[in-house]
Specification:
- There is one protein chain.
- By secondary structure, the protein is mainly alpha-helical.
- The chain contains 21 helices and no strands.
- Helix 3 crosses helix 10, helix 9 runs antiparallel to helix 10 and helix 10 runs antiparallel to helix 11.
- The longest helix has 52 residues.
- It is elongated and about 150 Å long.
- The termini are far apart.
């Protein structure tokens, strides 16, 4: 097959149709309508011209060549880029898995694309984002609608939106305005450029009938080629037609130029050398493992081959085209294999999604109908929904069916959930009624000063409130505030009244604070007996002050600790000092109406005496191991010293016990 076989399909029947559409249905219709208007005046000229080409081409090809799909794919992509040179930038836009994104993430990505890319290069991305967003919002809408109806709403009254949806609509409106403005401006340029190119073809045709110096004709021809290169983009549906027609007449001119072989052969050699370089680069790309990158560069090579370079000598045409076509096919086949591997991955994703759907169905069929069970199931469904979206794409042929199964499973679960909570809400409304009755009781009694009667009542309704259970969420905070305010009002009044009654207790507390501060600031004299008398006087004064509020009784502990600390500073016999401190302690424990503190002290002393006796017995038993050791041995002396100390302590505790017994009489 020759290069010409590929290029001379210019009868208009085999024009490449792009598989991509404009990003939005409205824009697509708008552009199609414009395209019809745009091409009305030029279409007859192209068809008439290409009919001539078809007749003339038959003189060079005797049979129709087989269709080369690997070349058609390149031609289709280049035809799309031909409408706008910046279209090629669409390959640089990062492709993301929009299926795994949440609605908020989709809106963020939409905004990023609008800000950082030309609007005509992101149509494919915006289409995918729109599809995924609408699918996810549709699912949310169905869920909200079922909840609305479950709450007693009417289908026709339902309406739902949120900030995410509003942001998406705003971005989509901005996109539509930008893309429509872009296509409107481009339309005029494309039509003008097409007319210009058709005129250039006519001018090249006219050179064949010009009777003038061949050098002048050749110069005119080169000027027309340069004009063609700079003529600008044209509609994609006219791209291949126009280029094939152009190439045909360029080759016809070179055939006409055979009278001046030097000029023709010079161009042929230049084109041949450049096309060999293109072939070598294509063959290098065939070894590249990055199929997308190699395909994009191959597009550029085909564009150079077709748009920048002219024909080569007839003896080379078929051979070099065959070689270029083979390199193209190698890249095409590798790319197809890459997509085949992707299809296998999509099949794995399908298996995973089928498993997730099955789990959702199983959870929906679970008959456990407690609130906690439903809350657990709701969390499980949310996790499965996230896993479904993150599982990746599935084969296109089953995409809609898989999505439908997923939505149906989730919808079934939501209906069960809504049914349960609809019944639960009936109970909640009963609870609401009960709590309102308690609020009425609290408000009726909040100003009462019959504390003896009302306080038990208020505590009782507080306990009942805790037992009643949940109420509808929208009422929960409101009624709790009402109830709490009424109860707090009553108890604040009660505490204020009781504080007035117990003012003498607060006065006593203030006196004890001053006495404690004075004790801590006390300086001892050189006379321990006098100091003891002062301490005893302070203890007596403390007891004389009397009781303090119950929540302030901690101050008694602080006072007696300070007394003990002061006694410890006295310079006198420790045993004697211990008994003085104990006398002070007994005075604090004495209470004719309640002997519990005294009983505790008695039991503590008995226990401590028993422990000391055991320690003495142990030490005396240890002495038996030293029966053959001299009495002045340090170890023996140490044991005897410990025994003596323990016996002295035992005497002290015996004395304490006697004093405690005396307190009972």
């Amino acid at each position: 097959m020759s290069e010409n076989d590929n290029l001379l399909e210019a009868d208009g029947k085999n024009e490449v149709e792009s598989t991509e559409t404009t990003p939005i249905e409205e824009t697509t219709q708008h552009v199609e309508n414009q395209a019809e208007v745009r091409t009305e005046s030029a279409e007859d000229d192209v068809i008439t011209e290409t009919e001539d080409v078809k007749v003339e081409a038959e003189t060079e090809t005797t049979s129709e060549s087989p269709k080369e799909e690997h070349v058609d794919e390149i031609e289709a992509s280049n035809a799309e880029d031909a409408e706008d040179e910046s279209n090629a930038e669409r390959h640089e836009v990062e492709e993301k898995d929009y299926h795994t994104m949440s609605m908020d993430e989709l809106v963020t990505e939409f905004n990023r694309l609008l800000k950082h890319h030309k609007v005509q290069t992101i149509s494919k991305n915006i289409n995918e984002i729109k599809t995924e967003f609408n699918a996810k919002f549709s699912e949310l809408l169905e869920e909200k609608k079922e909840e609305f109806i479950a709450d007693g709403g009417v289908d026709m009254d339902f309406y739902y939106s949120n900030d995410t949806k509003k942001n998406f609509n705003s971005l989509y409106k901005e996109y539509k305005q930008s893309i429509n403005a872009y296509y409107k401006e481009r339309e005029q340029n494309l039509k003008s450029n097409l007319d210009n190119r058709l005129q250039i073809i006519e001018d090249i045709k006219g050179l064949l009938s010009v009777e003038e110096n061949m050098g002048t004709t050749y110069k005119t021809f080169k000027e027309l080629q340069e004009k063609w290169r700079n003529a600008g983009p044209i509609p994609r549906d006219k791209y291949n037609n126009a280029w094939n027609t152009y190439h045909h007449h360029v080759e016809r001119f070179y055939d006409f130029l055979h009278l001046n072989n030097d000029l023709r052969d010079m161009d042929f050699k230049h084109n041949y050398d450049q096309k060999l370089k293109i072939i070598e680069r294509a063959e290098e790309l065939a070894q590249d493992e990055n199929t997308n990158r190699s395909f994009r560069e191959l597009q550029v090579l085909h564009k150079l081959w077709k748009e920048e370079l002219g024909p080569v000598g007839k003896e080379h045409r078929e051979a070099i085209w065959e070689r270029f076509s083979n390199a193209t096919k190698a890249i095409h086949d590798k790319r197809q294999a890459y997509y085949a591997d992707m299809d296998k991955a999509h099949e794995k994703n399908l298996e995973r999604k089928e498993e997730i759907i099955a789990k959702i169905v199983a959870i929906a069929e679970d008959k456990n109908n407690s609130h906690s069970a439903w809350q657990k199931k709701i969390k499980e469904i949310e996790a499965l929904r996230d896993a479904f979206f993150k599982a990746g794409k599935v084969p296109i042929k089953v995409n809609e069916a898989t999505w439908a199964k997923f939505k149906d499973a989730v919808r079934t679960f939501n209906r069960g959930k809504n049914s349960f909570y609809k019944d639960l809400k009936k109970d909640q409304y009963d609870n609401l009624k009960k709590k309102k009755e308690l609020i009425q009781i609290a408000e009726d009694n909040k100003d009462s000063d019959d504390f003896k009667t009302v306080t038990p009542l208020m505590k009782k309704i507080q306990n009942e409130w805790k037992k009643i259970g949940h109420v509808p969420r929208r009422d929960s905070d409101k009624i709790w505030k009402q109830f709490k305010n009424a109860c707090n009002h009553y108890f604040d009044n009660m505490h204020t009244a009781r504080k007035a009654e117990d003012q003498h207790l607060f006065d006593a507390f203030d006196k004890k604070v001053k006495l404690l501060d004075a004790l801590k600031a006390m300086e001892l004299t050189e006379d321990p007996k006098a100091d003891i008398d002062i301490l005893k006087a302070k203890i007596a004064e403390w007891k004389e002050i009397g009781h303090v509020p119950q929540n302030k009784r901690y101050i008694d502990g602080k006072f007696y600790k300070a007394i003990d600390d002061t006694f410890d500073k006295l310079k006198m016999d420790k045993a004697q000092l211990e008994m003085i401190k104990f006398d002070s302690k007994l005075e604090n424990l004495a209470n004719p109406d309640d002997t519990r503190l005294l009983d505790n002290e008695y039991n503590f002393i008995k226990k401590r005496m028993s422990e000391i006796k055991s320690e003495i017995n142990q030490l005396e038993n240890n002495l038996q191991f030293f029966s053959n050791v001299k009495a002045d041995n340090p170890l023996v002396k140490d044991v005897h010293k410990n025994i003596a100390n323990h016996k002295k302590d035992l005497d002290t505790w015996k004395a304490k016990l006697i004093k405690v017994r005396g307190m009972y009489s």
